[in-house]
Amino acid sequence: MKKFLKYFGLLLLVVLLFVGFTTYPKLDILSGFAAKSVASGIFIDNRPLEAIQQGDNDIDLVRLAKIETNKDSKFATASVYGLKKRKAIYREGLGATLVTDDFDETKPYLVPNRTKTETNLPFPYGNLEQKDTLFPEVNYEKLNLAVADAFDKNGEKIKRTRALLVIYKDQIIAEKYEDGFSKNTKFLGWSMTKSITATYFGILQQQGKIDINKPAPVKEWANDERSKITLHNLIQMNSGLEWEEDYGKISDVTKMLFLADDMPKVQLEKPAAFAPNTHWNYSSGTTNLLSGILRRQFQNHQEYLDFWYSSLIDKIGMHSMLIEPDMAGNYVGSSYGWATARDWAKFGLLYLHEGNWNGKQIFDKSWAKYVATPTPTSKGEYGGHFWLNAGGKYPDVSKDMYFCGGFQGQKVIIIPSKEMVIVRFGLTEDEDFDFNGMMREIISSLKK
Question: Strand pairing partners for 387?
């Protein structure tokens, strides 16, 4: 028995050492995710801490984090078993930022200038409620059943849809929210923010200020093989730069989002692993590098901050939207865009109308075609920072469908052939939620 206890003790020690060795480095990321999630949820959307813990932070290991909040000073901290405590601060006009111990919270900071113009027009072009318009070609009973079926029933926790919005010919024809959420709720789009970031290059190109087919304006690459990488390559995610996008471990993306102070630098400093235009590789680092490149187009930081809102977000009335920055002041264009479902829908409608917003051309109509053109080697699944159905991933949906997609199944779906935009927010990915079936049933409610 003594020998058994001795060997059992040694085995237990080995197991504990292994778990500690493999898990301890992850605690920075787990605590960082939890703190950032809580600070944003509470101070951007006024969500109760308990709701955030049971929803947004209901993820393996992340749920172990212990949270503390300070509503007066507007920050949240998180730690796992008292280890690796992380802090996220909220600043009015900027949102929440995960900070390190050496971040100077007393330093003055700039905020974007926002412009909100009240108009006497109904949604989507104004602030008034739309008139009740019934389309004879829409089977509303079938549509409402399809929408209701996307939500959990009787206390289930399977589909986990929080919001579903269907727009047809610029009219909301269906809108439903889970209890605790509403048309005024601000939702985190996660990687849907990537599509917004890319749009600024379409805007600048229309203004004649950039040419996406020229080498990316990154002076650090001037004397090596990366000098051949174009903005087009970056926008299509096939620059050939080294990058690991794995959220289940310590990888390039988790280190960038939860440890880096200057996120664009993480991808900028990566070496080339492949020749440009030969290897599609999804990279949040690439999007944040594009955010950094945008910053270099302006004479000062204030102009960069303002441009994101004045040229697009506020221009099309997405006044609830907020893009959060990193510690260095770069917008985290890969992941941190917040807005109501209706405002996210406006972004989809902008693309449905090929850049035209109520008579004003925000970007050239060719840009909408460009972002929906498949990236080489992506098997028809990805375009210019938009996901595509060109490869038939969703077999019951037309192949002209393309969409903004984010972690846990956030989607702004654009279907030009049906004059339709569908917005879905929730906490489930394609593996756990039948997006193909949801879209099929919604689309089939059109009788034509």
Answer: 382, 403
Task: Report the alpha-carbon distance of residue 84 to residue 250 in Å, rounded.
Answer: 15
Q: What is the Cα–Cα distance from 99 to 97, expressed in whole angstroms?
A: 6
Q: How far apart are CA 188 and CA 33, in angstroms?
A: 13
Extract the tokens encoding 8. Answer: 């059992």
pLDDT band at 14 (very low <50, low <70, confident <90, very high): very low
* Residue 412, both tokens: 């702004």
Helices of type H across 166-325: 192-206, 231-235, 252-259, 263-268, 284-295, 301-308
Q: How many CA atoms within 13 Å lie on the side-chain side of 300?
A: 4
Per-residue pLDDT tens over the stretch 261-311: 999 999 999 999 999 999 999 999 999 999 999 999 999 999 999 999 999
Say which residue the tokens 């040419």 belong to.
211
pLDDT band at 5, cuts 50/70/90?
low
Q: Is the pTM of this model over 0.90?
A: yes
Edge to edge, what strands does the sheet with 95-99 contain?
A: 66-70, 75-80, 83-91, 95-99
CA angle 428, 194, 28 (to 5 degrees): 65
pLDDT, one tens digit per residue, over 83-122 is 999 999 999 999 999 999 999 999 999 999 999 877 889 9
Measured N-to-C along each axis, helices 192-206 and 341-352 cross at an angle, to the nearest 10 degrees, of: 40
Is residue 237 within 8 Å of 382, Cβ to Cβ? Answer: yes
- Residue 236 to residues 90, 108, 229, 388, 402, Cα–Cα distance (Å): 33, 36, 11, 12, 14
CB distance 387 to 381 below 8 Å = yes
Q: Are strands 322-323 and 337-339 parallel, antiparallel or unpaired?
A: antiparallel
In angstroms, the CA 326 to CA 339 distance is: 18
Identify the H or E element spanning 162: strand 161-168
Q: Which residues on neighbouring strands pair with residue 322, listed in sequence order?
A: 338
**Angle 308-389-346 from CA coordinates, rounded to 5°:** 35
Q: What single-letter amino acid sits at 113?
A: N
Task: Judge whether 84 and 27 are in contact, CB under 8 Å.
Answer: yes
Q: Which residues, at least 6 apart from 186, have a Cβ–Cβ distance to it below 8 Å?
A: 44, 45, 320, 322, 338, 339, 340
Q: Between the CA of residue 302 and those of 44, 114, 307, what are the distances in Å?
A: 22, 12, 9
Beta bridge partners of 78: 67, 86
